[in-house]
Each structure stands twice: as structure tokens, then as C-alpha cells.
Amino acid sequence: MRTRDVPETLNTRQTLTALSAADPGTEATERHLPEEAYEAAFDAWAVAKEDIESEWARLADPKALQPRIPKALRDAVAFVGDHGEFLGNQEQNDLFERLNSVPSHRIERLVREILNGDHSDRETVELLADLAERENLQAAPPPPQIDPVHPAEIKLVVWMAITPPTRQEQPSA
Predict the structure, then answer these.
(1) Could you report the per-residue pLDDT of 42-67, keeping only the tens digit for each?
(2) Cα–Cα–Cα angle for 136, 142, 144, nearest 5°?
(3) Which helix (H) or strand (E) holds 49?
(4) What pTM was computed for the model?
């Protein structure tokens, strides 16, 4: 955990790394908590709490939860947007949403073949609409709504202060 007063300490979210560092080795390891480690624990908790809150916000961002649409489908969506007005507003929007998804590689390949084919703009849109219907492409569901975390909801469950081994205590490689 990186604290404000001890910049050489480490902040990690890697559970196994943290557990490995906190392993006392044996039950006979002496337990010792210097006063400065005790005092630094409060600063460390404040830093950890800020880190948890910012990580939650990053992971709960709806943009982070959106599926990654393959380029062929993004191109098809743009094509339908540019050339699909003859479908009518409702049908064009429906096709737009159905193509704005993450289908199998086979569907992606078929979409690319249609876009690269020697068709008129109208035929290309019609072929894309037929493909969406034939393959039952579904609009991607909206990402889940994840509420932001309030700092009061972040609770300290357990903490451990560890002292790095001295050079002579470190295991040889």
C-alpha cells in the first residue's frame, strides 16, 4: 500500500501478491507492530479507500461495459445510416441496432462480404437487412446500471502491517 509518508511502499490489487507478501512463513514468526506502522495504517486506509472508490467508478462507467463492436459491423451500421433511409425510420433504426452487436465471426465475415460486394447501395442495405433477419441478429442489451459507491459503503475488513525481510533473511534463488 502506497502511503503519503512512505513513497517506496507498494499499492497492489493483486490478491495473491498481497497474500504472498503477508505470509509470515511460520507460526513462530514474531509479531511486532512499530508505532510508526500503526500510525501509517490510517493514512494507508485513506489511500486504499480512495483507490477503491476510483476503481469502482472506472469499472461502473457505462462506456466500460459496452461491447466492443467489430469493425465490419461498425462499417455496416455506418452504411445503413448513410444509405438506408428508404427503409423508413423505424426499420432503419431496428437494423441499425441489430447490426450494432457482437455476432459470431461467421456473421462478421458475411457482413464484410456484403459490404465488399459489387452491389448498389440499396442492394447492400437490403442484403444486410436480409442477413440480420435470416440470422436472427438481436440488438445488444443495454449495459447493466451499476450505482456509484458512496465512500461510507467502503468498509475495512482486515489489514496487516508487514516488514520486508532484511537482506540476510531473503531466500536465495
Answers:
(1) 888 888 888 888 888 888 888 887 88
(2) 135
(3) helix 35-60
(4) 0.58
